[in-house]
Design a protein that fits this description.
Distance between the termini: 39 Å
Order of helices and strands: HEEEHHHEHEHEHEEEHEHEEHHEEHEEEH
Length: about 375
């Protein structure tokens, strides 16, 4: 029988530059390959496995739902969907939520919601959305266009109209674009993840919030990667003391199952009516059961511990010779290696039993929020040995 790698190369579209690693099982922060070799996983499926691999309470919740109801059309009600909506809104203070299947879909929903809100109130011609240079919002046509990186703006012409880009920190440029009167929303990540794990400056975020308030422009915060405890708060917005009219979530919300969410304040939560937006799989009972368990774990003590672990990991990384430019928030961390590329460093880490990610020139760490200090120390020892 051919190897899984050979089968994958023959039948799967070549859109992923996979590392030479086939994982077959995992528990907590540890994963194992086909030969039984153990790895410390500091990637969590790019921030998806918020509780690590196969956390037993999560597995039980998903399995129990799997044995009751696997899927139901959104033309009907289901308990996991409704309970998750209530929990999310109560935890975040938002008015209503729409469930999708991914971060890109959530951001698509946010774009549609913002444009519909502006259309209802101001009519046509006020549909532009400002995003930041170096941002990343998804791979669909609209979210790809919203992504403020030229490297992504190729091949798929024509791209979607109605997006403008400004450098993070350039409040004057934001104000000048809004003054033209055709902007309906400003969309940002508070920590630019794919762009290098770069937190935004609080004064800039506060300035954008004021511009939005003064001009009835909606603020969209993309918390696909930063949300659900990743930064040590349930939403990264809590670090900045702001609240967007629209917030998107995905990744860690399902604990390993595909889900996206669009949260809206009362200002725009009733903007989309029957038939204006929808999804076949959004709100799937099994996925929502997993997300309900994740939310139940996210109490104040859990989030505080995640924040403290993040500070500890950043502090220890900054003390290692050969590492520079440590940045991030909570357990969303990036750092640069002085004499190696991020890609080469990650490849070497896999050989030594450590799974990491890249974010441009930086190595990116998104470990499970359940990682222990002992596991952090073990990972740090591997990193030191590589330098």
């Amino acid at each position: 029988m051919k190897s899984i790698k050979d089968i994958d190369k023959k039948y799967v579209m070549n859109t992923y530059n996979r590392y030479d690693l086939e994982l077959v099982e995992g528990m907590g922060v540890n994963a194992y390959d086909v030969e039984g070799k153990e790895y410390i996983d500091l990637s969590a499926g790019i921030g998806v496995n918020s509780l690590g691999f196969c956390e037993m309470g999560w597995v039980a919740s998903v399995t129990q739902q799997l044995c009751k109801l696997n899927h139901v059309s959104n033309l009907f009600y289901s308990q996991p969907d409704a309970l998750l909506a209530r929990s999310l809104c109560e935890k975040t203070g938002y008015d209503k939520v729409f469930f999708a299947n991914s971060g890109a879909e959530a951001n698509e929903g946010a774009i549609k919601l913002a444009r519909k809100y502006s259309f209802d109130k101001y009519g046509e011609g006020r549909a532009k959305i400002i995003t930041l240079v170096n941002s990343f919002h998804g791979r669909t046509m609209a979210t790809l266009t919203a992504t403020g990186q030229d490297v992504f703006h190729n091949y798929f012409f024509p791209f979607i109209e109605g997006f403008e880009y400004v450098e993070a920190g350039n409040l004057k440029a934001v104000a000048e674009l809004v003054d033209k009167g055709d902007v309906c929303a400003i969309m940002m990540e508070l920590v630019q993840g794919e762009g290098g794990v770069i937190p935004l400056d609080k004064d800039f975020v506060d300035g954008v919030r004021k511009i939005c308030d003064d001009n009835d422009v909606l603020m969209i915060i993309d918390e696909v990667q930063t949300g659900v405890g990743r930064t040590g708060k349930f939403l990264a917005q809590e670090h900045f003391g702001i609240k967007a009219e629209i917030t998107t979530l995905a990744k860690g919300l399902g604990g390993g199952l595909p889900i996206g969410a669009v949260l809206a304040t009362e200002k725009c939560s009733n903007t989309l009516g029957f038939g204006m937006h929808g999804t076949t799989f959004g709100g799937n009972p099994i996925v929502c059961a997993g997300a309900n368990y994740v939310l139940a774990r996210m109490d104040e003590d859990f989030l505080y511990e995640a924040e403290q672990k993040g500070e500890y990991l950043q502090e220890k990384l900054a003390q290692i010779d050969g590492i520079e430019q440590v940045s991030g928030l909570g357990l969303m961390i990036g750092f640069k290696i002085k004499d190696k590329t991020s890609s080469d460093f990650v490849k070497e880490g896999i050989k030594r039993g450590l799974i990491m990610l890249t974010a441009k020139q930086k190595v990116r760490l998104l470990p499970p929020l359940t990682i222990t200090y002992n596991e952090i120390d073990k990972a740090l020892e591997i990193i030191k040995s590589m330098l």
